[in-house]
């Protein structure tokens, strides 16, 4: 089985933004990366010297639109597993997380920078560089993640995404199918 490093997108191939980039420009960088397939829909955040500070995906940008999402422990009790509408309504009411107008969200988006959203990657967002692609599949499915940051000794090397892992698995399946055909 291929290693995660063999199927990851190295940091150098990802679009990057600085911590001072505004949220709207970061979103534009994400949209541009979507047209540069097969690059994952994620941007690297680098300081002036080029050192990797973190990475942001679209959900990270959306999370930044409401400060309640950043509160410590906000999602600790939730497993993000198909909560019903009534439970969602109760939860929003309980934590006083009222829906905001598009105008309020737009104003917040214009005022935020990448630095405001940046946080160290959580354990469930990472995979060790020595892991195999099948381990990445397990982690993505069990953790409900579209991508994982590939790390070695705490340093982020790149990103492995579901599409890249799926392609690696399908290439292997094709090799297996053609080798058994005779």
UniProtKB/TrEMBL annotation:
Residues in CBS domain copies: 8-73
PROSITE patterns tied to this protein: CBS
InterPro entries: CBS_dom, CBS_dom_sf
UniProt keywords, alphabetically: CBS domain
Keyword flag tRNA processing: no
UniProt keyword Protein transport present: no
Listed name of the protein: CBS domain-containing protein
Source organism: Fundidesulfovibrio magnetotacticus
């Amino acid at each position: 089985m291929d290693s995660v490093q063999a199927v990851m997108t190295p940091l150098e191939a990802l679009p990057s933004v600085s911590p001072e980039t505004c949220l709207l420009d970061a979103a534009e960088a994400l949209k541009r990366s979507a047209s540069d397939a097969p690059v994952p829909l994620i941007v690297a955040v680098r300081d002036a010297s080029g050192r990797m500070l973190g990475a942001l995906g679209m959900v990270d940008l959306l999370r930044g639109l409401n400060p309640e999402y950043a509160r410590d422990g906000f999602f600790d009790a939730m497993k993000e597993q198909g909560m019903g509408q009534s439970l969602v309504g109760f939860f929003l009411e309980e934590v006083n997380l009222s829906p905001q107008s598009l105008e309020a969200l737009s104003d917040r988006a214009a005022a935020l920078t990448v630095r405001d959203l940046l946080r160290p990657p959580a354990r469930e967002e990472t995979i060790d560089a020595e892991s195999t692609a099948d381990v990445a599949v397990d982690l993505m499915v069990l953790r409900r993640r579209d991508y994982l940051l590939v790390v070695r000794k705490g340093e982020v090397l790149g990103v492995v995404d579901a599409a890249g892992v799926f392609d690696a698995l399908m290439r292997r399946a094709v090799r297996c199918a053609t080798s058994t055909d005779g």
